[in-house]
Design a protein that fits this description.
mainly alpha, Jann2411-like fold, 2 domains, two-stranded antiparallel sheet, two-stranded antiparallel ribbon, binds zinc ion
């Protein structure tokens, strides 16, 4: 089968996307073949058109997810890569080899294209997720990999800034609110005046 041009095996998004199908809070989004079919459908931009029987290989997708999660966790926790997970992503990547070729349809502007060995769509998608994991864990993006520590999140993400801690502004706010409440509880019922009043006082002093 021809590779789908959207099946970009150089994208690290696929690894993160698969890892996120089992959120810290909430249900497993790959609990059944039907759910995998929906997940693939929602990611057509990344994985292309799945064949009808792709979702039937949901057990293989869950097994790969376990390996991906183990590898990403090892990175963010500074642990060595687990050998079983390394073996699994290497096997799946090697099952559908890819290579670069020069497309000189316009000889003045030749472009690099990635070709994929003939295989069913499910194998291609599994290989694409495995490759994206290998590139993420073994490449420069590894330094930007984080796991969001906000209550109930735990999402893996790539930090845009070195100091980034949360996966989103919403998670940052939720974590700050949780910290604020924890401090208030620790301080007891009669706390100090609120920071807003403090800020107003400061502003008045400077007028
Ligand atoms: Zn988050």
């Amino acid at each position: 089968m021809d590779p789908d041009p959207r099946l970009d095996r150089s994208s690290s998004n696929l690894a993160l996307e698969l890892a996120r199908t089992r959120p810290a809070r909430g249900t497993d989004r790959l609990a059944s073949a039907g759910e995998l079919a929906r997940w693939l459908e929602e990611r057509r931009e990344l994985v292309g058109d799945p064949e009808a029987d792709t979702a039937l290989r949901v057990v293989e997708f869950r097994a790969l997810r376990e390996a991906v999660t183990d590898l990403l966790e090892a990175v963010v926790e500074g642990r060595p890569a687990p050998p079983d997970a390394v073996r699994r992503v290497n096997e799946l990547s090697a099952a559908v080899p890819t290579w670069l070729r020069l497309d000189a349809t316009d000889p003045r502007r030749p472009v690099s294209r990635r070709s994929t060995a003939s295989a069913g769509r499910a194998s291609q998608i599994l290989a694409a997720v495995a490759t994206s994991t290998i590139e993420l864990v073994g490449g420069n993006d590894r330094e930007r990999l984080r796991r969001c520590p906000a209550p109930g999140c735990g999402r893996f993400f790539l930090a845009g800034r070195r100091a980034a801690v949360w996966c989103s502004a919403a998670c940052g706010n939720r974590a700050r609110v949780a910290r604020h409440h924890a401090r208030r509880r620790a301080a007891g019922p009669s706390g100090a005046p609120s920071t807003d009043e403090g800020a107003d006082a400061t502003r008045r002093e400077h007028v």
